[in-house]
Amino acid sequence: MIELVEVRKTYRTGSIEFEALRGVSLRIDQGEYVAVMGPSGSGKSTLMNILGCLDTRTAGSYRLAGEDVGEMDEVDLAEIRNQRIGFVFQQFNLLPSLPAWRNVELPLSYAGVPRGERRARAIAALERVGLGEKVGNRPGELSGGQQQRVAVARALVSEPALVLADEPTGNLDSTATADVLQLFDELHAQGRTVVLITHEQEVAERAARIIRVRDGLLAEVGVRS
Ligand SMILES: Nc1ncnc2c1ncn2[C@@H]1O[C@H](COP(=O)(O)OP(=O)(O)OP(=O)(O)O)[C@@H](O)[C@H]1O
Ligand SMILES: [Mg+2]
């Protein structure tokens, strides 16, 4: 599903260049659950942004579901993100003025799904994450764990093949972390590919495979038996 070959990413800040990824080759098959670990600044979010087509690599190749992402323009990339990928971030990234269900239906409105269907699917997704009673609440009226479950509902409402999560439990207590990890287990059990960045070993151990990033390189790829 994911195939990176010698991917590099150089950031330019004024005249200063920084190579955040220095030649990363990685293959992730459809249906795998992979955790990405590594020190702060090692390049995990950079890697995730490239996997999620939120940013483009400077060199190397990236194929997603057989398609060469490097050949695509911004319109194609936006379509890939919308149709194939669900995102969950540490900071939830919900729109504060919208009730939960409106936040969840947003990816569907970008995809041109009709209004009535959007609402029904958003509510069904919120029910799947255990928030059927909170569909009308705004993010500020929900706990952190509930807000992250709204974000998971938003990630799964479009039925994406790939779910990318960057420190999704970083702001959650242990109970809310357990709830969110349970949801990722379910997504994995449904055959979706899940890639999760985390600093926490217990969180990473939910995945079948742990990838370590260090100084812009994959230091080690561990596969649990
Ligand atoms: N937009 C940018 N412009 C310049 N440098 C950047 C940019 N984004 C990231 N970097 C640099 O690239 C390196 C990797 O950053 P990245 O965000 O991928 O790290 P990370 O592994 O996700 O760290 P953390 O665990 O703290 O989230 C860092 O040195 C960072 O300063
Ligand atoms: Mg990061």
UniProtKB/TrEMBL annotation:
Can you provide one Gene Ontology molecular function annotated for this UniProt record?
A: ATP hydrolysis activity
Keyword terms = ATP-binding, Nucleotide-binding, Transport
Q: Which PROSITE patterns match?
A: ABC_TRANSPORTER_1, ABC_TRANSPORTER_2
Coiled coil ranges (UniProt) are none
- Which Pfam family name is an example for this entry? ABC_tran
Cite the ABC transporter domain residue spans from the record: 2-225
User: Keyword Lipoprotein: yes or no?
Assistant: no
SMART domains, from UniProt?
A: AAA
Q: What is this protein called?
A: ABC transporter ATP-binding protein
